Amino acid sequence: MKTERQKMTDGESYEQFDEELQARRRFIRKQLKMISKLDDNGKQNSLVSQLLGSCGKNLWIEDGLEFDYGYNIHIGDSFYGNYHLTLLDTCPITIGDNCYFGPDVGLYTPVHPIDPDQRKADVESGKPITIGNNCWFGGHVTVLPGVTLGENVVVGAGSVVTKSFGDNVVLVGNPARVIKTVK
């Protein structure tokens, strides 16, 4: 039988108030608060990388990082996240190499039911997010559950990405749409 963590990571309905999940969220909040008080950004990023599922070389994230679990976050080499990056990782979030995110970017994997009875019952699930190599997100970009973006994707500031797109495109708007190709 699967644990609530396994169900959550697999995108199945799970009990968000499971003790193991609550304990991990408490642990992460405590760690992120401690890390944010450090003066040395290099030391901050070294400690953050230890909380993640996997992380390549040259991770650099400015102050204000928030996530729930960490173990569902996988970041490639040479990642830059500007201030106030939010990664809600009930399901895996995979970010490729050479990606750069502006301030206030949010990647959200949780899926909450539209049906009010299911919401009252605290039914929650999720869908993974995958970001290819060489992507650049402007400030205040939001990526919704289940989105996959290809390589060399640029997302304009303030965009809300509600569906998947392939390689070499520039996306803008709410909902985001292709305005041109790259290369």
Word description of this protein:
This protein is α/β, with parallel strands linked by helices and 183 residues long. It has one domain (16-173): UDP N-Acetylglucosamine Acyltransferase, domain 1. Helices cover 22% and strands 30% of the residues. It contains 4 helices and 20 strands. The chain has helices spanning 4-9, 19-36, 41-51, 116-120; strands spanning 14-15, 54-55, 59-61, 66-67, 73-75, 79-81, 86-88, 93-95, 99-101, 106-108, 110-111, 123-126, 129-131, 136-137, 142-143, 148-149, 154-155, 160-161, 169-172, 177-181. The chain has a 7-stranded mixed sheet. The chain has a 5-stranded parallel sheet with strand order 2-5-8-13-16, with no helix packed on it. Strands 4-7-10-15-18 form a 5-stranded parallel sheet. Helix 2 (19-36) packs antiparallel against helix 3 (41-51).
